[in-house]
């Protein structure tokens, strides 16, 4: 079999995948085509929060596949109403908010819906979206421009008009960029996942909320990675005591089945009229059956509480691992910042070789995002593997000489580009 990127592969070379072929999974474990087992602390990038092959989700999908997969949005959809009501209740932390949901197929599409909605609400001339440097909002042209990583824009000019970026966590910078005559929305992640799990200063979101209220600007929170229990609350904004106007979600919503959603307060949502936006597949029964089973199971298991408990355990034990500079994040979205001299992609690769799946969103950070159902023993096991991957004797790369400059190894950016 040829690897993507090789001359004989039929796949476009947008990724440089690690040379492992997973063929099955159960809970927090994956198995490759040689029968080897791995502990999965990436969850397909914060997607399989209930673990692999969760029976409730598998049975829901199978049953739905035998009933009805798809009919389009030209007909009423009871399942969509059910899932939207569940999302609305979770946005309200258990209390219905009377908000409304648009269903899409991915995170980028959920954000694209939010951007169009913001432009609809803002009206002509008030169409700008201000987002943060270091952010990640998707790969379509509009969401790519919203993504505050100029390196990802290179080669794809011209970017769609109407996006500006400011330093993350800096209220003053946002205040000077958020011109109320031009700006429709502020779009932020409550914690920047792809930037290496960057947590803004306490009070940042509340200050942004106050600024948006004062200027009549929508606050759109991208909870695609942070939402649905990952950070120890149903949504990360609930830790900050703010009420967003629009929330986007995707990743964990179908536990692996593609689905995205854009929730908005009713007055905001009602600015859309029939024909303004749409999707052939968005909200189709197959994806919604997975989402309903996922959300019901998440509620039954109280996954935010599990994320808090296991997250506290992981942070406490990771702090004493040699080579770890700091540990940041919330719940089970954890960034392990490595000491100078370590190359995080190389460390992730050594962990993989030792049977632990993690990734390196930046050159000095290992991200941990295990399934929210991970056990105490599995967390201990993961820390032990990371400890060995960080040990000076672990490999022949630069981590053996923590004082020396980081050596750029061939393929060292494969983890980073695996977004
Ligand atoms: C993954 C992610 C997206 C994009 O989701 P896709 O399903 O890949 O389009 C957007 N925002 C955040 C914060 C993400 O983590």
Folded structure, characterized:
The protein is built from 13 helices and 15 strands. It has 419 residues and is of the alpha/beta class. The strands form three sheets. Strands 4-10-9-8-7-5-6 form a seven-stranded mixed β-sheet, with helices on both faces. Strands 1-2-3-13 form a four-stranded mixed β-sheet. The chain has a four-stranded antiparallel β-sheet with strand order 11-12-15-14, with helices on one face. Strand 14 (359-362) and strand 15 form a beta hairpin. The radius of gyration is 21 Å and the shape is globular. The two termini are 23 Å apart. Mean pLDDT is 93; it is low at 399-419. Pyridoxal-5'-phosphate is lined by residues 106-108, 111, 136-138, 189, 193, 222, 224-225, 250-251.
Number of domains: 2
The helix tally amounts to 13
Spans of at least 5 consecutive residues with low confidence: 399-419
Name the CATH superfamily classification of the largest domain.
Type I PLP-dependent aspartate aminotransferase-like (Major domain)
Overall form: globular
Q: Which compounds are bound in this model?
A: pyridoxal-5'-phosphate
β-strand number: 15
Query: Termini separation (Å)?
Result: 23 Å
Overall pLDDT level: 93
| Structural class by secondary-structure content | alpha/beta
- Reading side by side through the largest sheet, how are the strands ordered? 4-10-9-8-7-5-6
Portion in strands:
15-25%
CATH fold annotation of the largest domain = Aspartate Aminotransferase, domain 2
Name of the CATH architecture of the largest domain: 3-Layer(aba) Sandwich
Question: Helix coverage percent of residues?
Answer: 25-40%
> What's the order of the H and E elements?
EEEHHHEHEHHEHEHEEEHHHEEHEEEH
């Amino acid at each position: 079999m040829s690897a993507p990127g090789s001359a004989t592969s039929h796949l476009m070379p947008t990724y440089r995948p690690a040379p492992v072929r997973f063929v099955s999974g159960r809970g927090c474990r994956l198995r490759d085509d040689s029968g080897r087992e791995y502990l999965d602390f990436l969850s397909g990038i914060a997607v399989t929060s209930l673990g692999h092959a969760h029976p409730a989700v598998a049975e829901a999908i199978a049953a739905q596949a035998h009933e009805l997969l798809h009919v389009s949005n030209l007909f009423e959809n009871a399942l969509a109403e059910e899932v939207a009501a569940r999302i609305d209740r979770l946005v309200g932390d258990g209390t219905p908010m009377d908000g409304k949901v648009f269903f899409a197929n991915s995170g980028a599409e959920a954000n694209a819906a939010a951007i169009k909605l913001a432009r609809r609400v803002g009206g002509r001339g008030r169409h700008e979206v201000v987002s943060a440097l270091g952010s990640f909002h998707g790969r379509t042209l509009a969401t790519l421009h919203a993504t505050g990583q100029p390196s990802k824009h290179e080669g794809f000019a011209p970017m769609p008009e109407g996006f500006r970026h400011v330093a993350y966590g800096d209220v003053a910078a946002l205040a000077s960029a958020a011109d109320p005559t031009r700006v429709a929305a502020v779009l932020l992640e409550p914690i920047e996942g792809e930037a290496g799990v960057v947590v803004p200063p306490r009070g940042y979101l509340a200050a942004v909320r106050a600024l948006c209220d004062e200027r009549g600007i929508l606050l759109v929170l991208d909870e695609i990675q942070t939402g649905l229990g990952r950070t120890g609350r149903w949504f990360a904004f609930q830790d900050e005591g703010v009420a967003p106007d629009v929330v986007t979600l995707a990743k964990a919503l179908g536990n692996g089945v593609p689905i995205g959603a854009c929730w908005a307060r009713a007055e905001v949502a009602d600015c859309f009229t029939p024909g303004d936006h749409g999707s052939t597949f968005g909200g189709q029964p197959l994806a919604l059956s997975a989402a309903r089973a996922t959300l019901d199971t998440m509620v039954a298991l109280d996954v935010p509480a599990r994320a808090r408990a296991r997250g506290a355990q992981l942070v406490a034990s990771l702090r004493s691992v040699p080579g770890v500079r700091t540990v940041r994040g919330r719940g089970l979205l954890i960034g392990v910042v490595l000491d100078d001299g370590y190359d995080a992609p190389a460390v992730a690769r050594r962990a993989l070789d030792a049977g632990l799946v993690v990734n390196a969103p930046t050159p000095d950070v290992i991200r941990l995002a295990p399934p929210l159902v991970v056990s105490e023993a599995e967390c201990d096991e993961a820390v032990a593997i990371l400890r060995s991957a960080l040990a000076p004797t672990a490999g022949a790369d630069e981590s053996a000489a923590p004082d020396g400059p980081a050596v750029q190894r061939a393929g060292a950016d494969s983890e980073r580009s695996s977004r």
